[in-house]
Amino acid sequence: MICASCHSTEAVTGETRCARCAPVTPFVPAGPPLRSPVGLGQATVVMLGLVGAGDAVAIWADLAKPSLLADSVLDIAQGALLIATAVVYLCWLWRVRANAEVFDASSQSMGRGWVIGGWFVPIVNFWFPRRIVLEAWDASAPQGRPAGHALVNWWWASWVASLLADRLLRRQYDTGLAGAWALVVTDALDLVAAALAAVVVLKLTRMQHEKALQGPLLPTTALG
Prior knowledge:
mainly alpha
């Protein structure tokens, strides 16, 4: 059969036009592109470092007992810093969770809305965030080299411990020497949790970056 367009070349089998005249079907990606977590990861680590520094200052204040005004200013500054850090951290976590779906959607058992909601819904906020991070962690691990969970588990244990200390110790010992040491323990646990969270962010960000550079699983945006 002769091509219906140029009338000079044999048409492709099953088509009315030849290979030269047939329209080229544009490539459509099979799914959403990867987006680099590097910038958000770096910003999150910086914010967590500031939180840790704030905890260190708070430990000093717990023991030194500065003026009431200085103590109040420190509490306000810590609160504002925690809120800002939470916003940046959740943006980073949303990014790595979306990338994890690109790497291995079947391993992500929870809806993406839980990336944020899991931190605020009572009861489930004691394990949902850890599960989301672990699933993204596993999906981002290099092929043939599964990543262990010890680092994530230590981070989450320290975070839960700091929450419990804040809710229990601060209420039980709010004055005197016992109250001062309760504050020291709470702030120290929060400092450890912030430090371990920063390491988790660095590790997971690096794993995703390296896995994206291993090969074109899907079209990716520029990483770095």
